[in-house]
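Question: I have long wanted to understand how a fold can be written as tokens. Here is the record:
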Amino acid sequence: MFEYLEIEIDERIGVNRIRLDRADRRNALSGALVAEMKEALALAEADARVRVIGIGGRGPDFCAGADLEEVQASVEEGVMASLREAEALGELFTLLRRLSKPVVALVQGRALAGGCGLATACDLVLAAESARFGYPEVRLGFVPAMVTAILRRNLGEKRAFELMLLGDTVDAAEASRLGLVNRIYPDAEFEAACSALLAELAGRSASALALTKKLLYGTDGQSFEAAVATGARVNALARMTDDCQSGIRRFLGARGKTPRRHRER
């Protein structure tokens, strides 16, 4: 179905693995690949079998960033062509946050420029020890523009500014210290460890995961009071879900109690 992606769905545990499949170009983000990514994510969101999405890359690298040949071609076409290309990538980044299902970046090798942005735009980032991260655009006279919004939220202004302004590439340990990476695994254990974490996430309540993601990103920019009020509404909504009701019954049953409304029947 896809030319530049490899899709693997494990229905037993509800995990959809999406792998960028342009290893000969270090999985560079061409316009066609970006379009396929958006389509694949939309399909995963609509697929009742899928509870968690993992994004990785075929070959030695996660993603080297934008396809510079296409960037140059868009420059030659004019500013509107460049804008359309940039907006398409920006739409991919925002889509990752709009999905109700958790999206986990699985980074081996290099994640650079737009490729680092793709990883950072995911909800969680898992990295192999040998992985490398960076935004080297400034070294080309370019700007890591769309990812600025993501980096400010993940790293804070000072660290984001340093990473973007110097254009340095950092190892997984430094990326974790900065706040780009959640967990690091030895290279030899990376695949097994990622599979285990994806399965663990998929085993969580789908409604709880969706509401948690919506709450976390939905309170961005709100005042403290507004964020607490939003949390209260989500709390009340979560209590009414089937998953929460069954979880409460299990907990109280284990303690030898029965929920009030069931005792009254």
Remarks:
- The first strand starts at residue 5 and ends at 10.
- Residues 14 and 104 are 14 Å apart (CA to CA).
